[in-house]
Amino acid sequence: MKFITSLITVTAFASLGVFAEKPAPKAAKAGKPLKALLVTGGCCHNYEFQSKSLTLSSAAEADIEWTVVNKGGKGTTAEIELYNDPNWSKGYDVVVHNECFAGTKNMDYIKKIVDGHKGGTPAVVIHCAMHTYRSIGSDDWRRFLGVTSKRHEHQARYAVKTEKKEHPIMKGVPADWVTPKDELYVIEKTWPNTTVLATSKSERTEKSHPVIWVNEFDGTRVFGTTYGHSDATFSDPIFLKLLTRGILWSAGRLDK
Question: What is the value of pTM for the model shown?
């Protein structure tokens, strides 16, 4: 499915209660529209709602043309045909991964995905992308993500502590932001090229875990967040603006 969203469509969507505030005016155009690919599907989340919320809200903020691939069903194991094309990421300025296929273990398949980003197409990784392919023995996917996580804690409203206030992505995040009800992912490791932008504290252990970060992967920018489980989170204007800024930063548009 491919579509180009518009401010009119976003306003109509907001009237149904998806957004809590009126969409901001679009950012000034800087040449061609940013071409973004969203790959989504799998277990445990309302990906139809999340896809509409992300694409419509971001297109209201910036000049973005979206292509959405929602494949693989609602299970934990799938291989999406898209990745069989060795040039699957070519032509896009950024790819957003919002997939949840924890049980997929085919290393040849996973390598095709990672290779699409090496030295090339920037990425945004959301929530269950961190647990996708979590059973594989290789660290290729985890090095691409910038973090290693294999489990999460209970759902709650988590306070978000900004660690890098000067980073352009975080300029849109209030210092007192508390998430809607969401899951806190347990981060076992951050990789050498990862910069943690924000953390949240576990209610069980009092340990702080990265929840927002950026990563440099073989010459490619990656932005990530472990939040994004619930419809409430994908209805939160702060979270949606965070994703938009992460998309723009990954594609080199926020710096300008």
Answer: 0.88
Can you spell out the DSSP letters for 55-113?
HHHHHHHS-EEEEEEE-STTSS----GGGGSTTTTTT-SEEEEEEE-TT---HHHHHHH
Comparing CA positions, the residue from 45, 86, 46, 62 lying closest to residue 10 is 62
H or E stretch at 51: helix 47-61
Find out whether 185 and 100 touch, Cβ atoms under 8 Å.
no
Task: Identify the burial level of 241 via C-beta atoms within 10 angstroms of its C-beta, where 0-12 means exposed, 13-18 middle and 19 or more buried.
Answer: middle
Spatial CA neighbour of 127 closest among 209, 236, 230: 230
Tokens of 21: 């505030």
What lies within 8 Å, CB to CB, of 17 at 6+ separation is none
Q: Which tokens is 164 given?
A: 């890098």
Structure tokens at 242: 């965070």
Q: Where are the alpha helices (DSSP H) in 116-147?
A: 140-145
Domains observed in the chain: 2-250 (3.40.50.880)
CA 73 to chain CA mean position, Å: 19
Euclidean distance between CA atoms 1 and 187, whole angstroms: 33
Is the predicted pLDDT of residue 90 greater than 80, yes or no?
yes
pLDDT digits (tens, 9 = 90+) for 99-138: 999 999 999 999 999 999 997 899 999 999 999 999 888 8
